[in-house]
Amino acid sequence: MNKTPRNTFRPLSANVWTEVDSMTQVRTGPGCGVVLDPSTGRAKKIVVAGGRNTAAAKWLSSTEVFDLDTKKWTPGGALSQYD
Questions:
Q1: How far apart are CA 65 and CA 55, in angstroms?
Q2: b vs e for 45-82, b when ≥16 Cβ sit within 10 Å of the residue's Cβ?
Q3: Quick one: pLDDT band at residue 80, thresholds 50, 70, 90?
């Protein structure tokens, strides 16, 4: 069975997996969303938010943004918490 490496990306327009840098935080079960370019409607960025770092046994309030053009991750803003 072929296994896809953990840090890969495959655009919907291509049938090729590309290895990319890892996020700075290990995350299980984060929320994800896509940011579209308003002029073209094309996907520009993927936002990954929260989740759980199981190795550290803690919930994450950080976000990371993947730029589909540069194939790089950058830190995003922190999530608010409520009780």
A1: 22
A2: bbbbbbbeeeeeeeebebbbbbebeeeebeeeeeeeee
A3: confident
Residues 6+ apart with CB under 8 A from 64: 23, 24, 25, 47, 48, 73, 74, 75, 76
**Of residues 5, 11, 4, 6, the one with CA closest to residue 67:** 11
What average pLDDT score do residues 38-65 get? 92
Contact 75, 40 (CB under 8 A): no
pLDDT at 5 over 80: no
The dihedral through the CA atoms of 30, 36, 41, 43 has a sign that is negative
Residue 1 CA from chain centroid, whole number: 25
CB 46 within 8 A of CB 69: no
